[in-house]
Each structure stands twice: as C-alpha cells, then as structure tokens.
Amino acid sequence: MKIGLIGYGQMGKAVEAAAIRRGHNVTIRIDENNLADFNEENLLKADVILEFTGPHSAFNNIMGILKAGVPVVSGSTGWLDKFDEVRKCCLDNNGAFFYASNFSLGVNILFALNRNLAKIMTNYPGYSPRIEEIHHIRKKDSPSGTALVIAEDIIRNHDQFDGWSAELVPPHGKIPVTSIREGEVTGTHEIRYVSTDDVLSVRHEAFSRNGLAVGAVLAAEFLNGKRGIFGMNDLLGIG
C-alpha cells in the first residue's frame, strides 16, 4: 500500500517506520518545511494519507485530502469542534475518514473500560471521578484529546456529571482534569474514583510512540478501499 504522511515530526517518523516494517511504501512526506507540496497531484500518489499535525492546521489538511478523493487517517487533536464539517465533506465526496484521538490498542481498551466503569459508578455517588494525563513538554494541546474522550465518556454514562474542569477543586457536577507536561513522557492517562475510604484507579502508560504508530498503520490498512466514517471501535470490534 502507498502511504502519505502529512506531519513529519516524531509521530510522523514513528508511523513511517511502522509502515515500512509492515511492507508499505511511503510516497509523500509533507510538513511545515514543504507546504507547497500539499496539492492534489501529490496527494493522489497515496492510497491512504495519515495526518498528524496540530490544532491549527489539521482541519484544513483533512478537508483538502478528502476533497482530493484520498482516504485519510487523522490523529490530530484540538479541532473537533469542526468534526461535523469533516463528516459532511467526507460523505458528500463519497470519501473515507478514520479518526482517533489515540491509536494505542491499550488506550482504546481503556476507553471501553472507562465507559463501563462510569455506568457502574453512577450508582455509587460517594465516589468522585478524577482524570490525570501526563505528556512530554512539546505537546501543544492541554488537556490531551485522549483525556477529553475519557471525560466525555464519563459524562455520557454517569448521571452526576455534566462537564469537566481544569480546576483542582472544580464546580459542582464537573470532573477535574489535571494536565502535566514533563520531560519526554510519551503519554499516561489515569482515571481515579475517590471516596472517603478508598480509591479505585484505572491507568494506561505508553512506553514509546511505537504502539501509537502501529495502531495508525493498522487503521490505514483497515480504511483502504472503504467509504464512510470510522474509528478505533470499528477496527477493534469494540461495541
């Protein structure tokens, strides 16, 4: 399969290495140093394009790729307020779009555990949920997209909460989300339910970007030849 990369930072390079290990060819690489290469002629050199950039460029990148008629896998965060526009563009162009805030297989299992745990804990109001995420100092969005997915899934499945807050002591009905940026931490996410008597904790810690990169390449393989909107639940068969 011919793969294109939009965004060629550390994550883009990790995706490239994973793609090559799985027998694919990387045909285009575009980042801030060669933006003029982002054109339909070059985009069409790929069967699937993987887009890992930042909040300010992701939306325009995704829209441009979809309008060129090329399937796109994106892991960029911080732009999801425009997701409905991307959905419409994809469907209007009979395209294919795969989005995940985190491509780690372990994190997506964590998401499933989090949803089920929130349903259970809604019956135990003595426990209050808290979310903590830790990433490297270069990560631009805060909280992470993964932490926001965790928070939103708790909100949807727990009757006592209707939002989240970055405050250590949040307003009533809001889940506290703490973001820490330190060193070269790849990514750690923890959900804690705290009572006066004990703490129930579910935690995922990534050791490197390799798990994310492999998941992204698996998503590209899954998307190739399909039409529509997809995510990690589709790839993993998680209900």
Task: Summarize the helices and strands and which ones pair or pack.
Layout (H helix, E strand, L loop, with lengths): L1 E5 L3 H12 L3 E6 L9 H4 L4 E4 L6 H10 L4 E3 L8 H10 L3 E4 L5 H17 L6 E8 L9 H13 L5 E3 L8 E8 L5 E8 L4 E8 L3 H14 L4 E3 L1 H5 L3
Parallel strand pairs: 1-2, 1-3, 3-4, 4-5, 5-11, 6-8, 7-8
Antiparallel strand pairs: 6-9, 9-10
Structure characterization notes:
With 239 residues, the protein is an alpha/beta fold. The protein folds into 2 domains: 2-99 and 210-236, Rossmann fold, CATH 3.40.50; 105-206, Dihydrodipicolinate Reductase, domain 2 (2-Layer Sandwich). Helix content is 36%, strand content 25%. It has 8 helices and 11 strands. The chain has helices spanning 10-21, 40-43, 58-67, 83-92, 105-121, 145-157, 210-223, 232-236; strands at 2-6, 25-30, 48-51, 72-74, 96-99, 128-135, 163-165, 174-181, 187-194, 199-206, 228-230. The strands form 2 sheets. The protein has a 6-stranded parallel β-sheet, with helices on both faces. Strands 7-8-6-9-10 form a 5-stranded mixed β-sheet. Helix 3 (58-67) runs parallel beside helix 4 (83-92) and helix 5 packs parallel to helix 6. The protein starts with a strand and ends with a helix. The mean pLDDT is 95.
